[in-house]
Amino acid sequence: QVTLKESGPVLVKPTETLTLTCTVSGFSLSNARMGVSWIRQPPGKALEWLAHIFSNDEKSYSTSLKSRLTISKDTSKSQVVLTMTNMDPVDTATYYCARIVAGTLQPDYWGQGTLVTVSS
Amino acid sequence: QSALTQPASVSGSPGQSITISCTGTSSDVGGYNYVSWYQQHPGKAPKLMIYEVSNRPSGVSNRFSGSKSGNTASLTISGLQAEDEADYYCSSYTSSSTLGVVFGGGTKLTVL
Q: Is residue B1 in a domain?
């Protein structure tokens, strides 16, 4: 059974750095056919892809947020970490991690999401 | 990456069929058969309903079907049921500027 679970702070202050962790089970981060994406959704708004990472450490970032994002993985812990610097209130959103399929990059299994609020 | 274009809302009565469109460009929808559709109920995570344009994951009702023509993909739901009321998002592989995924703006389906 594939599961993903996001964890991290519920509240961050403007200009702070957000660090989110995605812990996966039911598949291995060393599987060449699978990767993990981070996707966010501001309240009442659409989904926005942020970044992805694969077993060979191949990474890709959203063009608009690339300067603020870093994605990494710890295969032994089955964890993928996303950091986003210089947080702003407009970054308030539910952040999801999702398993993706190599080649298509399409998410198939999603975590439950974690709501992050940016406020002083 | 620019978002894919979806209608903001569609509606239908129980038993009817509806179609939701998703329009992109030759760098995403039109260039690859890597289009997915997701159903999202309020407060819940998205659920994969269609992948690679027209394939249904195990457990998804055959009332859901997908297709593509040129730069536009479509999701059709037949025999509408009250439980189908949700937001629907399309996504596509994109090769514009960076290799990744682009999502549609979402469509609110109301079952009358």
A: no
